[in-house]
Amino acid sequence: MQNILVIGCSPRQKGNSDKAAEIVVQTLADRGESCDLIFLRDKSIIPCQGCRGCLKTTDNRCVLADRDDVQEILLAINSAGKVYFCSPVYFYHVPAVFKALIDRGQSFYEAWMQKGAPEKALMRAFCVLVAGRRKGELLFKGSLISLKYFLQPFGYALEDLCLRGLDQKNDLTTDPESRELVKRFIEKS
Predict the structure, then answer these.
(1) CB-based contacts of 150-154 (< 8 A; 24+ apart in sequence)
(2) In terms of DSSP bridges, do strands 123-130 and 82-88 run parallel, antiparallel, or are they unpaired?
(3) Tens of pLDDT, residues 94-111
(4) What is the 3-state secondary structure (H, E, C) of 104-127?
(5) Which of 9, 170, 181 is nearest to 101 (CA)?
(6) Alpha carbon distances (Å) from 50 to 62, 68, 135, 177
């Protein structure tokens, strides 16, 4: 059985993307799959400092790796057979805590590039993005581009479900149609 990782990316507890993560975990459990669930808000994440120190360290290890929880999270992503991200969208992008994790993935990107950016069989990663706005042609574009390239060195291809108009803390809880969309998205994963 493959290792499955679910990552809750919201700084707000018990909001819409936490509810999405709950649906992901329950849908996986309903089909007999267990997973590890982590919330980024519970982890220590120091933002990338752009020092490029990961170019000079053994195995491109980030120079901040021993000071926070990022290395542990990135290694979990790297070793998972499948990964799910549940995140709100703030100002057309993922929240700061999630973006900080993405930026720290630079060390994995550098290692991947030094090996000649090998083409490897892509595994599947899934994201459920939840936005309060109902309109906006490019509402999810920044998040999806960042996620696509963040996940590439780990060997993942991204599939997404983007939900609009879920702004208040319990909107997903009280919207059976959106909950069903999340459940069906995960059932097909």
Answers:
(1) 150/102, 150/105, 151/77, 151/83, 151/125, 152/109, 152/112, 153/105, 153/108, 153/109, 153/111, 153/112, 153/113, 154/77, 154/78, 154/105, 154/108, 154/125
(2) parallel
(3) 999 999 999 999 999 999
(4) HCHHHHHHHHHCCCCCCCCEEEEE
(5) 9
(6) 10, 16, 34, 42
